Amino acid sequence: MRTPIRHSMFDSCVYDVAPGNVSSVFHCVNRDTKDTFIVMCGLTIVAKEGQEIERNELGEAEAAAALQEMSSIPYMIDFDIPVAKVVCGDMFAGLLTCEGTVFTWGYNNYGQLGLKQSATRVVQRPNQIKFENKGKQMQVKDLCVGFNHGMALTDNNQVFVWGRRMGIYPNIELSFNFLTTHARLLYMENHQSEPRLLGNNLIFYKIKKLCAGPWNSALITEQN
């Protein structure tokens, strides 16, 4: 094992860190000015040599022609809104602001960025996603992601989901009896590109905590 080294970019105080599958995101605070900033490192998406890309959202053909994956030293993410939490999945990342809004960037091949535009394959810079219920914009107080899916907890303790296989949940009830008798639904590759409110029997519970593994998720209610 190589000896750990200290990178000069982390001379500031690291307030939060989110390790993903092949990259990591750091929420840092400058010791002198108290300004916060976001740092990312690991396998990342960069423009190919000679390519100048102005658009933030790229389709599959555009991304294949102009972008490439490359291991990266720590670099700063251009973002100037106060951040409460950072998260990182498999080649995508996100953050929750102090205002209760969510931004994501990276790969979007399973809808893991929560965008309405399902044809978008790569987002280069943080892009805000919306959480709406019956036309009302919801504020978010917690955020977590797996390798290719995400979950958000709203200020009224309801849960939104999006990404890989999250399109199955309008058709199921989160109970042991239902899941054991309809096991085939859990293997359907039905992705969800836009955040969807979890309903059915979950409307009778208030959720207090979200947890996500690479391909699985868990919720803790206020009744524990």
Please summarize what this structure is:
This protein is mainly β and 224 residues long. The protein is built from two helices and 17 strands.
Topology:
Elements: E1 13-19, E2 23-29, E3 36-47, E4 57-59, H1 60-66, E5 67-77, E6 83-88, E7 92-97, E8 102-107, E9 120-129, E10 132-133, E11 136-137, E12 140-145, E13 149-154, E14 159-163, H2 176-181, E15 192-197, E16 207-212, E17 217-221
Antiparallel strand pairs: 1-2, 2-3, 3-5, 4-9, 6-7, 7-8, 8-9, 10-11, 12-13, 13-14, 14-15, 16-17
Here the CATH topology equals: Methylamine Dehydrogenase, Chain H
Report the strand count: 17
Strand content is: over 45%
What does the largest sheet look like? 5 strands, antiparallel
Q: State mean pLDDT (0 to 100 scale).
A: 87
Low-pLDDT stretches are: none
Describe this structure as you would to a colleague.
- By secondary structure, the chain is mainly β.
- The chain has one domain: 7 Propeller (Methylamine Dehydrogenase, Chain H), CATH 2.130.10.
- The chain contains two helices and 17 strands.
- The strands form five sheets. A five-stranded antiparallel β-sheet has the order 4-9-8-7-6. It has a four-stranded antiparallel β-sheet with strand order 1-2-3-5. The chain has a four-stranded antiparallel β-sheet with strand order 12-13-14-15, with no helix packed on it.
- A hairpin with a 3-residue loop joins strand 12 and strand 13 (149-154).
- The longest helix has 7 residues, at 60-66.
- The N and C termini lie far apart (41 Å).
